[in-house]
Amino acid sequence: MKRFHGRLDGRRLAGLLLPVLIAVAATGCGSDDSSDSAEANDVDRAFAAEMVPHHESAIDMAKLAQARAQHEQIKTLSNNIIRSQSAEIKQLQDGNDRVGSSSEAMQQDSGMHRGAGGSETLGLSAQQMGMDHDLARLRSAQPFDREFIDMMVPHHQGAIRMARVELAKGQDPQLKTLARQIISAQTQEIEQMNVWRKDWYGKVSPAGGVPNANEDAAQQGEQEMPGDSGEHGAGHGG
Questions:
Q1: How far is Cα of residue 96 from the mean position of the Cα atoms in its chain?
Q2: pLDDT at 139 (0 to 100)
Q3: Helices 173-201 and 144-169 sit at what angle, rounded to 10 degrees?
Q4: According to DSSP H, which parts of 69-209 are helical?
Q5: In angstroms, rounded to a whole number, what is the distance separating the alpha carbons of residues 238 and 231?
Q6: To 5 degrees, how large is the angle CA 58–CA 203–CA 179?
Q7: What is the pLDDT of residues 145-176, one digit of tens each?
Q8: CA-CA distance, 77 to 191, in Å (whole number)?
Q9: Which range has highest mean pLDDT (16-20, 44-48, 227-231)?
Q10: I need a surface site. Which of 46, 103, 145, 192 has the fewest CB within 10 A?
Q11: What is the C-alpha separation between 57 and 130, in angstroms, rounded?
């Protein structure tokens, strides 16, 4: 009889411990799932929010190029921009959800570049972000390809600046990985567009080439910011 009660007590003890163990395990899983958002800061949220309309404006320009470009190279580049940046917009929207960007906060920060400024949180003006272009001018531009390059180069420069701020001051690992991809892709595309412009029209874009990382850092009051003109890799960004 004693051994029977001993086995019963063991079963009762196991029954009592099982819910506790399940609760502990569930708590641990919850912490893992929220770790990324817990690390995120305002720069992450601004980067994810601002890069969506930045990508959308690049896609608008690329769609015009699909119809109006004279050179097949520009049409191929535009197709790549539309495909890759549409995919990145989905990543950025997922990032917004993950880091907790409320629609109100996104509108407050992105609203800056509807006025005199760009993104207050990123510390960049609309011009520095490459968001001061005139799409209507591109629609009627002659020659179209030259104007497309002259608009897309500063637009890409802006994406690089935004991504450098994310690398320097952001916390979210996935957004920082995306920022590196954007810097790499934009660097290659700026260099390629300037090669085409010089070959076709005699000079590189008036906007210049890949923005100098140290100059960007000085404007932001930082000694150094990650990413330089030597960064290369696969993919396309905004």
A1: 11
A2: 95
A3: 150
A4: 72-99, 103-110, 135-139, 144-169, 173-201
A5: 16
A6: 35
A7: 999 999 999 999 999 999 999 999 999 999 99
A8: 13
A9: 44-48
A10: 103
A11: 10
Burial category of 112 from C-beta neighbours within 10 Å (exposed 0-12, middle 13-18, buried 19 and up): buried
DSSP assignments along 16-70, one per residue: HHHHHHHHHHHHHHHHHHTHHHHH--HHHHHHHHHHHHHHHHHHHHHHHHHHH-S
For residue 73, give the nearest of 217, 193, 222, 208 by alpha carbon.
Answer: 193
Q: DSSP character for 150?
A: H
DSSP 207-219: T-SSPPHHHHHHH
The pair of structure tokens assigned to 49 is 């929010």
What single-letter amino acid sits at 105? A
* C-alpha distance from residue 72 to each of 44, 67, 78 (Å): 37, 11, 10
Residue 119 phi, psi dihedral angles, 5° rounding: -115, 115
CA dist 47 and 93 (Å) reads 11
Which pLDDT tens digit goes with each residue over 31-68?
343 444 558 899 999 999 999 999 999 999 999 999 99
Which 8-state DSSP code applies to residue 119? Answer: B
Residue 209 identity:
G
- Closest Cα to residue 184, out of 211, 204, 160? 160
Residues ≥6 apart with Cβ < 8 Å to 101: 45, 48, 49, 95
